[in-house]
């Protein structure tokens, strides 16, 4: 896996003091910048003075044995980054980290070849030493600090080896061949580390990028067991600080990340209060989020790590302080082939998930709140709504700008107190509101609904000339933290869309029931075969249509889906599963309630509009046919008997506009109803749940 470039983003770390750079004796670089004399005085009977080389004397002036001693002395210096007399360090201008070693061309060729074999080790040491010095600064982050510390410990072992070689040299027991023999075991490891360091320096890696680089290089060196083991040890040492950050997150829900290296970011600008206002629920999805550059050994479990800390933070926001039980076996300071760290993370996730789920279900009564919302917004408990519609009729028939929301709220409170809803302790959380647009326009404005574009582009449905409160009235529900995680602004909006559709259907049903009562009031006149009789049949067909629709919505959509969701919530293992099941319930209800099927919904809305127009015209139709000052007097038998059927028939005949109006309503309603049938039948192939509604609707058509 290729490492992902990650640089530290935090600016809160202190800067490195200037004197740490200006004073070379504090860093050790002065050794590399000043020539020193040979460290041996006597070797193999030779005096240093006897072959002391000056800048004007080439090494080729000495015989091979003396050259070997001089070269060994220079190589021991070069191995710790110190320039010798005949082995020089050359730096590339502008690239201080790139160094090369040069030898006196007059040196014996055999000695030159052996020296050049050892030069890569010297170059690796200088590169590693420079990396340790530079990456120990604050700005490079904890992972680089830990990696540099591990390298520093390795260099101590390396320098101890050089010191032992020097001791052997001073005893006259070290030759060039011996020096090459002792250096070979370290060559592969030092070169592998220098390769890692060069990539890390070139790309300015920090945090997880360093860990990924080390791990990928260790895998690439699978054929060299010693080098692979060393790189794995370096990875382990460098990851200790990172795992410390991870441990605090999964066990306490705290991001202790001073250098911005952790793969989880916190957006402190998002507050939990925004859940009740923000339709996109950004707090839950974006307060804590994954960043780029996840360590490869945590990539498959990064989502679970993020969720674990989120759950712990939710409980802290609730004032419920909880910490995952930590034991010696659950420490996250080691990762390896046994995957023990994965088991620790999974255990922390299970604990946090269970604790939060129990807290929301038991202390905050999630199921009770959802059941209360079902009572009111899904019209599961309809007695309060009937009473409310009776007492608020005058207010709801006004135009939107003339409606008093405060008056509606007081009427709603009155309806709640005087019906069975008074026993519900959650009824105080119910509020009313008046939307500014019709249901179809509201559906078109919701960007995440798949049918919104069709609604917004469709212009074939005529909007009401004057939209009243009956088309825009809605209920809302006060949801407190942490229940707002589940019942978010988006979820409430979906509940409100369903409520508005049901509420308007109830309104149409009530209006048609009123029209039916008017027809029943003139049954005593026995007007069979007249326009009134035809109107009565039309009214019955409309009632059957709206009742079939309401039956489908409530008993075949909302109730079954609610019970399925309820059973799933009982077996949910985490709050995210609860949110998922709840959202699935709402989306399924929206679709099956026709709110995501523009073609079907527009037909239904047209039929409802015809029903309302007919119900509003019923009073005029009856009064135009029969001259009755007050329809209530029809309850008096004497009044009814005083009018003969022939007299009523004559009045009907004299007013042909009545029959024409009824016939027009009948033809238009039947045409819309019959056109809806094929749409439902064709759509039921893709949407099987429409089969039930189609049966009801087609049944209405057959009655006609």
From TrEMBL:
GO terms for biological process: cytoplasmic microtubule organization; meiotic cell cycle; microtubule nucleation; mitotic cell cycle; spindle assembly. Residues 366-694 form the Gamma tubulin complex component C-terminal domain. Keywords: Cytoplasm, Cytoskeleton, Microtubule. Residues 72-363 form the Gamma tubulin complex component protein N-terminal domain. Its main location: cytoplasm. GO terms for cellular component: gamma-tubulin complex; microtubule; spindle pole. GO terms for molecular function: gamma-tubulin binding; microtubule minus-end binding. Belongs to the TUBGCP family. Component of the gamma-tubulin ring complex (gTuRC) which mediates microtubule nucleation. This is Gamma-tubulin complex component.
């Amino acid at each position: 896996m290729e490492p992902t470039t990650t640089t530290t983003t935090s600016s809160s770390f202190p800067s490195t003091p200037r004197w740490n750079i200006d004073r070379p004796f504090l860093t050790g670089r002065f050794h590399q910048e000043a020539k020193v004399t040979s460290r041996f005085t006597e070797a193999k009977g030779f005096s240093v003075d006897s072959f002391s080389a000056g800048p004007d004397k080439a090494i080729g002036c000495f015989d091979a044995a003396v050259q070997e001693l001089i070269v060994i002395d220079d190589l021991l210096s070069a191995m710790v980054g110190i320039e010798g007399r005949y082995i020089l360090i050359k730096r590339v201008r502008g690239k201080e980290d790139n160094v090369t070693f040069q030898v006196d061309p007059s040196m014996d060729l055999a000695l030159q070849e052996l020296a050049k074999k050892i030069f890569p080790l010297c170059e690796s040491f200088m590169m590693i030493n420079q990396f340790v010095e530079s990456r120990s600064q604050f700005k490079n982050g904890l992972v680089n600090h830990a990696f540099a510390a591990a390298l520093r410990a390795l260099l101590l072992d390396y320098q101890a080896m050089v010191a032992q070689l020097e001791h052997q040299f001073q005893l006259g027991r070290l030759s060039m061949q011996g020096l090459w023999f002792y250096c070979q075991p370290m060559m592969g490891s030092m070169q592998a580390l220098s390769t890692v360091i060069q990539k890390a320096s070139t790309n300015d890696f920090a945090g997880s990028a360093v860990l990924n680089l080390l791990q990928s290089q260790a895998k690439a060196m699978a054929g060299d067991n010693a080098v692979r083991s060393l790189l794995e040890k370096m990875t382990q040492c460098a990851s200790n600080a990172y795992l410390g950050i991870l441990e605090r997150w999964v066990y306490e829900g705290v991001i202790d990340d001073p250098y911005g290296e952790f793969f989880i970011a916190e957006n402190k600008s998002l507050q939990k209060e925004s859940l009740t206002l923000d339709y996109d629920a950004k707090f839950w999805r974006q307060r804590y989020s994954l960043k780029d550059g996840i360590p490869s050994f945590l990539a498959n479990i990064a989502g679970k790590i993020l969720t674990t800390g989120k759950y712990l933070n939710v409980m802290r926001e609730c004032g419920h302080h909880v910490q995952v039980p930590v034991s010696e076996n659950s420490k996250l300071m080691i990762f390896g082939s046994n995957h023990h760290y994965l088991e620790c993370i999974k255990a922390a996730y299970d604990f946090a998930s269970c604790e939060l789920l129990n807290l929301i279900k038991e202390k905050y009564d999630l199921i009770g709140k959802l059941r209360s919302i079902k009572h009111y917004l899904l019209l599961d408990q309809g007695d309060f709504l009937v009473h409310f519609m009776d007492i608020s009729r005058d207010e709801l028939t006004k135009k939107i700008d003339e409606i008093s929301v405060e008056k509606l709220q007081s009427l709603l409170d009155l309806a709640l107190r005087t019906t069975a809803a008074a026993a519900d302790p959650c009824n105080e959380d119910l509020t009313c509101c008046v939307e500014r647009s019709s249901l179809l326009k509201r559906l078109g404005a919701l960007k995440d609904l798949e049918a919104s574009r069709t609604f917004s582009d469709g212009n074939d449905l005529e909007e009401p000339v004057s939209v009243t409160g009956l088309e825009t009235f809605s209920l809302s529900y006060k949801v407190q933290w942490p229940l707002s995680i589940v019942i978010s602004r988006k979820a409430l909006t979906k509940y409100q869309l369903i409520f508005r559709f049901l509420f308007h259907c109830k309104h149409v049903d009530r209006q048609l029931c009123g029209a039916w009562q008017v027809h029943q009031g003139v049954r005593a006149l026995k007007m069979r075969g007249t326009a009134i009789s035809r109107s009565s049949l039309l009214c019955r067909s409309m009632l059957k249509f709206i009742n079939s629709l309401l039956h489908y919505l409530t008993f075949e959509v909302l109730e079954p889906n609610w019970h399925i969701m309820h059973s799933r919530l009982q077996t949910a293992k985490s709050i995210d599963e609860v949110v998922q099941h709840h959202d699935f319930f709402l989306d399924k209800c929206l679709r099956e309630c026709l709110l995501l099927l523009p073609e079907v919904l527009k037909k239904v809305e047209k039929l409802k509009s015809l029903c309302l127009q007919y119900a509003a015209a019923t009073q005029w139709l009856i009064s135009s046919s029969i001259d009755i000052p007050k329809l209530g007097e029809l309850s008096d038998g004497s009044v009814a008997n005083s009018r003969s059927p022939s007299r009523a028939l004559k009045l009907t005949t004299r007013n042909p506009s009545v029959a024409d109006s009824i016939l027009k309503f009948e033809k238009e309603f039947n045409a819309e109803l019959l056109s809806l049938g094929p749409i439902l039948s064709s759509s039921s192939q893709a949407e099987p749940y429409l089969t039930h509604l189609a049966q009801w609707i087609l049944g209405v058509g057959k009655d006609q």
